[in-house]
Specification:
Blueprint (H helix, E strand, L loop, with lengths): L1 E2 L6 E2 L2 E2 L10 H14 L2 H5 L4 H6 L2 H14 L3 E12 L4 E12 L2 E13 L5 E4 L14 E7 L6 E2 L5 E13 L9 H11 L3 H8 L10 E7 L3 H4 L6 H14 L4 E10 L7 H4 L2 E3 L2 H6 L10 E3 L2 H5 L1 H5 L3 E7 L5 E8 L7 E2 L4 H11 L4 E6 L6 E7 L5 H5 L3 H9 L20 H11 L14 E2 L10 E2 L9 H6 L3 H11 L1 H10 L26 H7 L10 H8 L8 E2 L13 E3 L5 H16 L15 E10 L9 E10 L9 E6 L8 H18 L2
Parallel strand pairs: 9-17
Antiparallel strand pairs: 1-4, 2-3, 4-5, 5-6, 6-7, 8-15, 9-10, 10-11, 10-12, 13-14, 15-16, 18-19, 18-26, 20-21, 22-23, 24-25, 25-26
Helix pairs in contact: 13-23, 16-18, 16-19, 16-22, 18-20
């Protein structure tokens, strides 16, 4: 057996691809011929043919035939093993060889023979016909590549409700042969009705594959609900869709047919969570080489669609056949079965997700909900939002500009960001202070009114609070949300101990969660620099920034005797809690803070009393954070917060809900959030009965 590497063959002092005056033997000439395939040097291959082969095949037909087949099957990694060589009396040399190559459908291997003739006294040339490509191939045959697209997996909520999956839309297309001869006015009207450009329509019509009887896809739109149309009171939206469809069908050549698309049933309510898919771009194909994408593939562009792209997309199937002149399959060269994408089931409760969105959809807000005892994430909501179905159906430039210019930033995913937590941070400060011994829960700090400063070194800066009460002890301070108490507590804790305590709680670290979240921090410079910054940090101001899911996860410490439970998004049939931060507080400290948080909700003096439920024991904390450009700023805005959780793991369907709303100043502060979350919780608990 003679074995050659087709990319680097050397005979004597001759290297293939270099100019030489010495003649190559058939073996070397054949290896040179094969090496040209991957380099797409088809004209050079043609130059190696003998005169009879050139008479039978023009340069143009030879190049076209080889190019279409080799590039059509995406041939690469071509390897040749020459197994035998026979020379006969007619100046012919026959080479037997084994050939293997990788294709779009997998590896193809075969045994074949090549014949070389002496054209002149010492020159060898290749006798070529189609069988040199594949042994069974004749000039009348075709090589067909069949694609069997993999079905993209569904995204499901914990109750198997579809969050992303297959659906039906209406494809608006044009049949060129049925259009008017003067198409200008019709194309202008079509572009206007579909809110697209005339240029995009003309580009679609001018594609090389288009024939007179082709249905050329122009746009997709939401399918008309025929059943609703037949009711006594169809919605205004349905009537408008019907009117649009009728206008489109009046244009000569327009056809409307059903087409399968990816749909998102919760649309805006889960848009930032599920994300969306789009057709791959040239950049995507370059970035994801060898990953099974083609020009018609979809790719997850954001959210869970992007996060689990590899599992969702599946693997397309391919088959490469030789077809006879009558279209019959003569030989299957290689076949690769398709593998449909996996369904991804999330811990999300679709009803809760939707209810939170509906309550907050007009606000700039975010909400996260988790099971405080297992870490299952039940909802991740950002408002306002966008309809991710629009990205599937085709978003017009006008729609895109409206989304980008909207002052409320509907494309901005708020649950992934960090925010100033305000008083929702006080339970954590209290737990750090109790753990270090800096806070004596029974010590009365004394009533100093509604403003306070440590001493005159603070200049004109004062810490203010809204409520006066007595005695000024830890539990009462949490119930009344006393900024002054927690500013004093932070000073007692000290910057070093507070930084260490917050580092133990995951600050300046990546949150261990499937979706990447912004890291929480307590200072712009990694250190708490001044006394005023330290005091402000005590009640969740200063430079404290925290991600809402991180804050929700930290609240699990009070429900789990000092352990912080790791949040997760991928559903498990039998959820087992995983501890993220083990025993960051003692059971005694965690329970003491929880008892105070219980009274925030269940005491008539508590700032969260409006969320009190008679049949479910809840604990939590409200918070309002001032957002100012400077200490002197009187026109700043406020963030409203509310965190609340089920205290008893055995109560059934436990929940920890954390919500934040921007711009609550003059709208009730945190009570604005409490009111909305209370309505959500009431519906949640009633649904679970």
């Amino acid at each position: 057996m003679i074995l050659y590497n087709s990319t680097d063959l050397k005979i004597g002092n001759i290297r293939i691809g270099q100019k030489t005056e010495k003649q190559l033997l058939p073996d070397a000439l054949f290896m040179q011929y094969i090496s040209c395939i991957e380099r797409k040097e088809y004209e050079k291959m043609y130059s190696m043919l003998n005169e009879q082969s050139k008479m039978n095949n023009s340069l143009e037909s030879f190049v076209s035939r080889n190019q279409k087949i080799y590039e059509g099957i995406e041939a690469k990694n071509i390897k040749i093993k020459i197994t035998d060589r026979n020379k006969d009396q007619n100046n012919e040399t026959m080479i037997s060889y084994h050939m293997s190559l990788d294709s779009i459908a997998g590896k193809i291997e075969f045994e074949n023979q090549a014949v070389f003739t002496k054209e002149k006294e010492s020159d060898y040339a290749l006798s070529w016909d189609d069988s040199l490509i594949f042994p069974a191939l004749t000039s009348n045959d075709k090589v067909r590549v069949s694609l069997h697209p993999a079905k993209r997996g569904n995204i499901l909520d914990r109750n198997k409700k579809v969050l992303a999956g297959p659906g039906t839309a209406s494809l608006v297309g044009l049949v060129p042969g049925k259009m008017n001869q003067d198409t200008g006015k019709d194309i202008s009207k079509l572009a206007s009705l579909l809110n697209i450009t005339k240029e995009s329509i003309n580009k679609s019509l001018s594609a090389k594959w288009v024939k007179k009887d082709s249905l050329v896809p122009i746009n997709t739109m939401e399918k008309l609900d025929e059943a609703e149309l037949l009711t006594n009171n169809p919605s205004k939206e349905t009537l408008e869709k019907k009117e649009l469809q009728d206008e489109l069908l009046e244009i000569p050549g327009v056809m409307i047919t059903d087409t399968e698309v990816r749909v998102y049933p919760l649309s805006n309510a889960a848009a930032h969570l599920t994300g969306y898919v789009q057709k791959v771009t040239a950049e995507d194909l370059e970035k994801h080489k060898e990953e099974g994408y083609n020009s018609n593939s979809l790719i997850g562009r954001s959210g869970v669609e992007s996060l689990y792209e590899k599992e969702l997309k599946g693997q397309n199937g391919y088959e490469i056949d030789i077809l006879g002149s009558g279209g019959e399959v003569k030989e299957i060269l290689v076949s690769q079965p398709k593998k449909d994408g996996l369904d991804i089931t999330l811990t999300i409760d679709g009803n809760l997700q939707k209810n939170l969105y509906e309550r907050f959809k007009e606000d700039k807000s975010c909400s996260v909900a988790i099971n405080p005892f297992t870490g299952e994430v039940l909802a991740l909501v950002s408002t306002p939002a966008f309809d991710n179905n629009d990205f599937i159906l085709g978003m017009s430039t006008k729609q895109w500009n409206q989304l980008n210019k909207n002052k409320k930033k509907p494309l901005y995913n708020r649950f992934r960001q960090t925010w100033c937590p305000g008083s929702t941070f006080k339970p954590l400060i209290g737990a750090i202070g109790l753990s270090t011994g800096a806070i004596d829960p029974g010590e009365d700090y004394g009533n100093v009114g509604d403003s306070w400063q440590k001493d005159k070194s603070w200049g004109g800066y004062y810490v203010t609070t809204l409520h006066t009460y007595a005695p000024v002890i830890f539990e009462n301070a949490l119930i009344h949300s006393d900024n002054i108490y927690f500013a004093k507590a932070a000073l007692k804790i000290g910057a070093d101990n507070l930084e260490k305590g917050l580092d133990r709680l995951g600050f300046n670290q990546k949150l261990p969660f499937e979706i990447s979240m912004s890291q929480s921090s307590y200072s712009n410079s990694q250190k708490i620099e001044t006394e005023i910054q330290l005091a402000d940090s005590g009640y969740g101001q200063g430079q404290i920034l925290i991600n809402p899911l991180h804050l929700a996860a930290l609240y699990t410490v009070f429900a789990n005797e000092g352990n912080v439970i790791k949040p997760y998004l991928r559903y498990k049939e039998n959820p087992e809690p995983e501890i993220w931060l083990k025993q960051v507080f003692s059971t005694e400290v965690a329970n003491r803070v929880k008892n105070a948080m219980d009274k925030v909700i269940n005491s008539t003096n508590g700032t969260g009393y409006a969320a009190h439920q008679n049949d479910v024991k809840l604990a939590g904390k409200t918070g309002t954070a001032e957002i100012k450009t400077s200490k002197e700023d009187t026109n700043g805005t406020e963030l409203g917060w509310f965190g609340i959780f089920t205290e008893d793991a055995g109560a059934g369907n436990p929940i920890l809900l954390m919500s934040m709303v921007e711009d609550v100043k003059n709208r009730g502060g945190s009570s604005f959030v409490v009111k909305k979350d209370t309505a959500v919780l009431e519906e949640y608990f009633s649904d679970k009965e």
